[in-house]
Amino acid sequence: MTWIAKPPLHHPELRRNRVGYTRRDYEGKVSTLCAGCGHDSISAAIIQACWELDIEPHRVAKLSGIGCSSKTPDYFLGASHGFNTVHGRMPSVLTGANLANRELLYLGVSGDGDSASIGLGQFAHAMRRGVRMTYIVENNGVYGLTKGQFSATADTGSRSKKGVVNSDSPVDLVGMALQLGATYVARSFSGDKAQLVPLIKGALRHGGAAFVDVVSPCVAFNNHEGSTKSYEYVREHNEAVSRIDFIAPGAELAPRPAADGALDVPQGDGTVLRLRSVAPGYDPTDRRAALDLLQERHSRGELATGLLYVQADPEDLHSALNTTRRPLNELGLAELCPGTAALEALNAGLK
Ligand SMILES: Cc1ncc(C[n+]2csc(CCOP(=O)(O)OP(=O)(O)O)c2C)c(N)n1
Ligand code: SF4
Ligand SMILES: [Mg+2]
Questions:
Q1: Which of 117, 186, 330, 331 sits most deeply, having the most CB atoms within 10 A of its CB?
Q2: What pTM, to 2 d.p., does this model score?
Q3: Which atom of ligand 2 is nearest to the CA of 38?
Q4: pLDDT tens digits along 250-261
Q5: Quick one: 171 exposed, middle or buried, by C-beta within 10 A (0-12, 13-18, 19+)?
Q6: Which of 2, 31, 34 to mutate to test ligand 2, by most ligand atoms within 8 A of the CB atom?
Q7: Atom of ligand 1 nearest to the CA of 151
Q8: Whole domain around residue 282: which residue ranges?
Q9: What is the pLDDT of residues 275-300, one digit of tens each?
């Protein structure tokens, strides 16, 4: 058996959100991952975020590649649209779906192998194009599904379960997302739900390319001494730089300091992210400062977490391409195919 159905009955008095759903309506099948796998905590955080944001499940399209992480969309949002692509190809399938129908909320779920090895080129182009999506990497430093080989995000000098030392340099997807122009970039830890849920909520409301790297320990192959992706290591070495305190409806047009020193940053859907710096003087709207901070923390063996960078009122691929607002499947033949005369006029203009 590859999946287990959950009993459909639940308590009639479970709390409902403003669109009438209980938290259970955002669940999926029973997880078949190893007990204690960080990926299951991320699924729980996604469920919590969508329920709290009153998102109707049928408005979400969840896409993934291949891996334990990429299996997880089966374990949340059971009533949403879903597409399990070939290994590493989720970003291009998500881009195509997004261009065809901008009315859905796009949630890409991937692994460090899926995005930093075979899918690195796909990841890069989705970020640089500003595809409106929430892109979550469940980062455990190994290929969990194929039994624990080092992935491209494994730190130099970290040890495998059998004691092999990794000599390669790591790919830092957060640094890449920042350099490539993503407009919302965060890092978190699957063991810190209080930090992770607001970061996912902020990403879902963002309106541009939102990337969330979540360190997610693999208890079967990468949770031992010598690993830099174990529960113990991440608990000891992660340091939050900012905190999303409040997301309020209604927006102003530019980032401005809130009265008590917090920073208000308007987002694509008209809401405002209220950010508080935990690291003294850290400004999460300064892309260069975010890159400097990453390098500085990395050189000390520390992990900077929280919302590292956010841009106010982000642009996305649709605004760059000036695409139609209506989903393509709602357009008629006349709109999709303007006819021979229009094509000839277009060709004449190119001569
Ligand atoms: C084209 C292709 N190459 C290789 C594989 C084998 N494969 C399956 S999952 C995987 C790596 C998964 O690692 P990651 O994305 O980090 O997910 P995790 O299992 O660690 O969550 C690989 C190499 C495959 N399925 N398809
Ligand atoms: S092998 Fe690792 S990543 Fe896969 S389910 Fe088990 S703990 Fe999670
Ligand atoms: Mg992995």
A1: 186
A2: 0.93
A3: 8
A4: 544 456 665 556
A5: middle
A6: 34
A7: 16
A8: 23-321
A9: 776 777 888 999 999 999 999 988 88
